[in-house]
Amino acid sequence: MAVGKVRLALPFVAGLCCLLGLAAAVDRNNFKTCEQSSFCRRLRSLEPQASEFAALPQTLQQFKQFITISLVHQRTQHEYTLKLACLKGGGMFHFQVDEKQPLSVRYRVQDALVQEPQYGATRVESTSVTLVSVVCGEGEAKAVIQVAPFKVDFFQQGKLVVSANAKGMMRFEHLRTKQQQDQNQEQNQDQPEQAVGDGAGDAQAPAPAEDPGAWEENFKSHHDAKPKGPEGLALDFTFPEAKVLFGIPEHADTFALKHTATKGTDPYRLYNLDVFEYELNNGMALYGSVPVLYGHGETSTTGVFWLNAAETWVDIFSANRESNVVSSLVNLVSWNSQTEPPAANFISESGIMDVFVLLGPAPTDAFRQYTDLTGRGPLPQLYAMAYHQCRWNYNDERDVEMVSAKFDEHDIPMDTMWLDIEYTDGKRYFTWDHHKFPHPVEMIRNLTELGRHLTIIIDPHIKRDGGYFFHNECTERGLYVKNKDGADYEGWCWPGAASYVDFFSPDARRHYADQYLLENFREQSATVGIWNDMNEPSVFNGPEVTMLKDNLHHGGLEHRDVHNLYGHMQLMATFDGLLRRGEGNLRPFILTRSHFAGSQRYAAVWTGDNMAEWGHLQASIKMCLSLAVAGISFCGADVGGFFGNPDGELFARWYQTGAFQPFFRSHAHIDTKRREPWLYPEDVKLVIRDAIRKRYQLLPFWYTLFYEHERSGLPIMRPLLAHYPTDVNAFAIDNQFLLGDQLLVAPVLDAKQSRREVYFPARADGNGDWWYDCDTYRKHTAVGIEAIPVDSYKVPVFQRGGTIVPRKERVRRASTLMRNDPYTLTVALDHNGQAKGTLYIDDELSYEYRRGHYLYLQIDYRDGVLSSRKIDSTASYPTKSWLERVVIVGLPQVPSAATLYTDASGAATGRLELERAEDTVVVRKPAVSMLDAWSIKFDF
Is the pLDDT of residue 42 over 90? Predict the structure, then answer.
């Protein structure tokens, strides 16, 4: 929740309104452009040039797992060290560039990677006065360092796939004192004036007219002291085999990145900010920053992970500059005009160059390589994948109980009620307003007895109030972020005057985490979920509605170095507290707005303060696809839009879309009309009910996808290019998507539609897969666009031939009550008459699955036999669920009989009842336990 039409104490609201205004859309004046950001202005280059950096071959040092070589800026003679290493398993390089002898230690990002990089054998293959060749293992992955001008080319299986500094845009401002700068300016005052950022762009040999923001900077009324002076860096990457670039979330823009390297156009910005009613179709910074970017073409997919937590801008040099990329199915992108490969230039304010090069070669290889570095999202409790009901704010206990009861009255399943900030005592976290919520523990217990859960919001700002225990503890223990003078930093947020927990301090993280323990925060239970919001951090009276860059964190860290990590560090603390609250065996549920690389290890993410507009519905797919390929699969958007009042058609279509996204929550601003489904006309309510019920039927499929994400690191929600990498028409499509490789989802995203155009992609051989309509089982076999008729209930969803999808068709009020219910399997045959799928089962809430208490089943259909067996033979879980129904589509002929066999007896257990309709066959009540190995043989 961000600042919009807010209700605050009168003395505070006057200042706040002057700052932000009660506008109907984002005020762009509150946020910097590249020209207003001194380091971006200094270091940005729009044209290729000859780099002034060179490697020094005589300084090459070989170690078992990495090499080092010195770099020099030829004009200033300042030296840097390049470290280059292969990662274990091949397919990835890691390189770092830092000053050889910096005046002080430059910050290196901590806590984003799941572990320290694991290096493999790194060997110098050859050296010369012009080139140094480095290979990994057997030599399939190679890096070639060009001495002068400095460049690094990365090869996969002999093919050049990534080049660093091929455009010569490398910059690295070395640390120095302002006195040195003043002396240099006096010595150079008779030299001809250079353009700002010319050559090294690092002010190591500054021009007389150095950028006025290099040593200190103002934005509106805010001053940044910049005690270390200018320390920016930049490096460009070219993708010779690519046609399209994607990644670097979070932006409300197309999935395929647009060309930005044009004067008057800003680069994409990565700087976590509280932006309410954000604009669509631009690269403005939003709530999270994940600095990973991929280049994709028909022959390879590669990636660059720029591990830097400071403010970062990324310029895109697109292969299609005139038309950019479009997602319209009517105007599929033409790539024939490509004259040069796409490239990206990363520009960061501080830190070091810390880069992982992901060599793919397939899209799924590159996605897996990235999550190998930053971690995979852990399997959530099943209820977290079900439907969530939220509003700022449900008024009181009676309101919560009434809404819960109304879902039952209208036969609409719902798993979680959410409470926004108004549940607290005067905006003090870890407390309750006992006038509105006099019996919170009883309220939570009542929800639990219905099979439901409660989630509450807890933000990082702490009310400065001498009567508030947590503020006093943070003050006494020195756990707050400090200002540049060393005093506790004070800003404005929901409580008015507030200070901010310094999550970079281990003591602060531990004490904050302790507050979640039941002995401290007693009016809760171990099942309550937590919502971390406003954690960019949001500071209403700060520059760009956030914290001053010259604030100080534990260990003397400047906020400028770690800004994009702040919310991530809060997640670490929250996760630790919830894990200990559940005695280490209950999977925590956390939702966050701010995020960074690796945040998927702790929390789900939603796309922030969107609007009740069709464009924002469309953006929810684009944004979640970009997050998914950046490791954050557990993504969703506020159903209906946070701001505004959606009409019935938009609201229903948004539910239909949200039902097929990983995180499924309806949420609304405090000044919107109440919008529980039954408050809409009956026809709208029934469509919403149908969408939610479809979600619950597919929960076994979702649960299996989430489990497999933890095992493989592959996204749950995927762009079409993930599985159709050679189909150039699919590269930029972002109005439909895949779930795993089983379902193709094409929601209705525009008003008054009677037909939805769906693109069915081509395989490498030019043919298409078979796709079966999940409602009618109609088979689609052609490649290309097909107009699918839609009515108010219709969501075009197709199951790929060759897959098996599990469902549970007995929908109950909450997912927790469906645990032992029976399964239905939908078997969709491919052109070979085969299909395969998986099913994952456990207790749906604990970590016992990591101790072998689960079932992971392989289900196959081939040669007229459907069979199920364990994938992990040593794992087991005593499920009470059983097989109720099998639907087989795509059979070339109708079977005359079906016989069930189980391994327990080794013999037939009896004939099964069949229902036949065209090429669809339904097997009724096999009634075999999902715990058993079994097979069904069909006679033809």
Answer: yes
pLDDT of residue 25: 77
215-253 burial, b at 16+ Cβ within 10 Å, e below that, comes to: bebebeeeebebebbbbbbbbbbbbbbbbbbbbbbbbbb
Q: How far apart are CA 54 and CA 72, in angstroms?
A: 5
**Strand bridging mode 604-606 / 635-636:** parallel
Catalytic-residue membership of 533: yes
Q: How far apart are CA 185 and CA 208, in angstroms?
A: 5
The stretches of 261-362 forming alpha helices (DSSP H) are none
Query: Is pLDDT of 908 > 90?
Result: no
Return the structure tokens found at 910: 């009896």
Maximum CA pair distance of the chain?
99
32 pLDDT band, cuts 50/70/90, is very high
For residue 686 the two structure tokens come to 């029934």
- Give me the catalytic one of 576, 609, 638, 769: 609
Percent of the chain at pLDDT > 90 equals 89
Beta strands in 608-716 (DSSP E): 635-636, 638-639, 664-666
One-character DSSP codes across 376-418: -PPPPPGGGGSEEE--TT--SHHHHHHHHHHHHHTT----EEE
Can you tell me whether residue 64 is helix, strand or coil? coil
Is 734 annotated as catalytic?
A: no
Given a cut of 50, whether residue 201 has pLDDT beyond it is: no
Residue 601 DSSP one-character state: G
Report whether 732 contacts 395 (CB < 8 A).
no
- DSSP assignment of 850-862, as one string? GGT--EEEEEEEE
Quick: pLDDT tens for 46-100.
999 999 999 999 999 999 999 999 999 999 999 999 999 999 987 999 999 999 9
335 by Cβ neighbours in 10 Å (0-12 / 13-18 / 19+) ranks as middle
Beta pairing, strands 934-939 & 920-924: unpaired
pTM over 0.90: yes
Give pLDDT, residue 330.
47
Residue 363, preceding peptide bond in cis (omega within 30° of 0)? no
Instruction: Give 805-864 pLDDT, tens digit per residue.
Output: 999 999 999 999 999 999 999 999 999 999 999 999 999 999 999 999 999 999 999 999
Write down the residue that tokens 């290729």 correspond to: 48
Q: How far is CA 437 from CA 383, 403, 455, 676, in A?
A: 24, 15, 14, 21
| pLDDT of res. 342 | 98
User: Helix (H, G, I), strand (E, B), or coil: what is residue 655?
Assistant: helix
Pairing mode of beta strands 496-500, 461-463: antiparallel
| CA dist., res. 296 & res. 588, Å (int) | 35
Could you tell me which residues come within 8 angstroms of residue 430 by beta carbon, excluding any fewer than 6 positions away? 458, 470, 515, 520, 521
Q: What percent of the chain is helix, strand and coil (3-state, nearest 5)? A: 20, 30, 50
Percent of the chain topping pLDDT 70: 92
Residues found in the chain? 940
Task: Tell me how far apart the alpha carbons of residues 713 and 374 are, in angstroms, rounded to a whole number.
Answer: 10
| Contact (Cβ atoms closer than 8 angstroms) between residue 491 and residue 539 | yes
| Cross-strand bridge partners of residue 154 | 143, 162
Instruction: Report the distance separating Cα 585 and Cα 599, nearest Å.
Output: 20
The rounded distance, in Å, linking the Cα atoms of 560 and 89 is: 35
- Token pair 């507009």 in the structure block, residue: 613
Placement of tokens 């602060």 in the chain: 508
Per-residue b or e along 771-797, where b marks 16 or more CB atoms closer than 10 Å to that residue's CB: bbbbeebebbeebeebebebeeebbbb
* Residues ≥6 apart with Cβ < 8 Å to 164: 95, 151, 152, 153, 154, 235, 236, 237, 355, 357
Q: Which of 202, 266, 274, 533 is catalytic?
A: 533
